[in-house]
Amino acid sequence: MAQNATEQGLRLDNLSAGYQKTIIIEGISLTIPSGKMTVLVGANGCGKSTLLSTIARLLQPMGGTVLLDGKAIHHQPTKAVSRQLGILPQSPLLPEGLTVFELVARGRFPWQNFMRQWTDADEQAVEEALRLTGTLDYAHLPVESLSGGQRQRCWIAMALAQNTPYILLDEPTTFLDLRYQVEILELLHDLTRHHGRTVVVVLHDLNFAVNYGDTLVFLREGKVQGVLNEDDVCTPELIGAVFDVDVHMSINPLTGKPFFLPFRRSGKA
Questions:
Q1: H or E stretch including 223?
Q2: In whole angstroms, how far apart are CA 207 and each of 33, 55, 93, 236, 257?
Q3: To 10 degrees, the CA torsion angle through 82, 53, 180, 152?
Q4: pTM of structure
Q5: C-alpha distances in Å from residue 93, one per residue of 51, 101, 103, 130
Q6: What letter would DSSP give residue 99?
Q7: Alpha-carbon distance 81 to 74, whole Å?
Q8: How far is CA 250 from CA 14, 31, 40, 243, in A?
Q9: 5 secondary structure, DSSP code
Q10: What are 121-177's pLDDT values in tens digits?
């Protein structure tokens, strides 16, 4: 039986979540656009990472649900979900002594079991992930010998090797210098434009979010303050409401998109 188009994709229905008995995000309903980059934006502590972790099944909802193709994601088998959805947490733990190829190959674990070991298809998936992320030339090197930007590409390659239509990333540009931040965001943008992936990412940098995101989800105190799609205008008023800071908006002459500079409110030292 054909699946209803409204059931396909990733959708949040009145989702609430948190830690122990403390609710961090509350009553969030969203549809994640397929084949696009959705960026979660907001001040520290607003619930961005909690929301991403709940979508990724790392946290159980306190209310509502996350639906993947019409089915509650938290009720599906772990292996079935891991073939649909890849997650790159904020500070992934790196086992000692792994080469780049060995790390990226771990992305194939969801496709293996005691009856199905390493195959040519696994080899091809890893090589394609290395190629897409520009890490093929140092596949033989220890991951710990690489720069921060190169390591981050390796982690993204592992998520790509998992061969999932959805990729979730929590602050993938943190601690990287400007060049590597741009390279990572260009890579994620390319994955949506040319490789059909749906990317959901938490970003701290507002201007990067505005310039790379297809959909922006603004969070404040655990609730959605606003959602902007590709043709919507991001205003200084919205930024002020989300971050509690006055900003000046200018237009990037190369992209036509806005960028924002904060300034002091009058009367403040």
A1: strand 223-228
A2: 21, 24, 29, 12, 9
A3: -40
A4: 0.89
A5: 21, 16, 11, 20
A6: B
A7: 9
A8: 35, 30, 22, 18
A9: G
A10: 899 999 999 998 899 999 999 999 998 888 888 999 998 999 999 999 999 988 788
